[in-house]
Amino acid sequence: MATDPYLHLVEIFSKFDTADKYEPFQVINTSYKSFNQGRSHINVDILIPRAILSQQELSKCAVMIRIHGGFLVTGSSRYPVWFANWTLDYAISTGAIIVAPDYRLLPEVSGKDILKDMDDFWHWIHSPKFAATIKDAGYGHIVPDLDKLIVVGESAGGYLAIQLALSYPSEIRAVIAAYPVLDLKSKFYTEAYPKTILGVPNMPNEIIEEHIAAMRTAPLPTVATAADPPDRLKLAFSIFQNGRLLEFLGSEDYLFPMKRVENLAAAGGLKLPPTFIFHGKQDSAVQFEGSQRFFDLVREKAPDAIVKLHGLDADHGFDFATTLETDWLKDGLEIITGAWLGSTTVD
Question: With a threshold of 0.85, does the pTM exceed it?
């Protein structure tokens, strides 16, 4: 009897060894935003390498913002299967604090709401509340250095990382976007046709319709701010496979990185921090061509920008077991580390 492709994918996720993933870190969980008259909150995790804590001396630490993926529909700040090991190792090797926010998810909210969450998170991390949270947890000797700030995101998180970079280019030292969703107006996101994602054939539209019906009949407005797959994964696949992303995301220009690049360039205000994008050329969830088009557009509109695109033969999420010694990643990080920390080596 043939195995159901979706169940097979879920089984693969369940087999990842993630038991000790965050053991090298002290994790502080707090919230950066409340809504629904203060009844609901959006969480953020602060991961401090234990190697720094053990020093017991005043440490000014660089900051890595890491934004999770999940089609803008699922995922969470610390869902271990999608938190690439190299990201954690990079923070440890550079002595950086990781700050990983959640955000409200489609389709309960729009893209406008998600970007508002990211903006509110940005202001929170630049407010006294961020450092105070670390101090109140008993780590007053750890001082976040917001002059050395990098943004890292994968998939939908890569989309949000690029959006932050376009909004705050002078305050972000560098960006790493792993297989980011960038060309959202392409037919892959706007048209329904057979799209096998990670081995899973098209999910039916009924999954979306049933979810929306449940939202409408709920006694209180429902909002999701985090979900660990397989929760909401079928819904995410169905939205992408049936070309309905923009139906829930919205149509305003600022939702689309490609359009923002064009508009900023036309207004003479296009800036982008040093950026490293990597993407599998056989990506079945987020097409590689979107990263290529974004890269080409930036090179055209801002020829002095430092932007590196690395494409390789792989599908979505291929970097889970990648290490800092992997040649293509090591090469890309040399540029990024120099821009972020003012050096070109990783310890």
Answer: yes
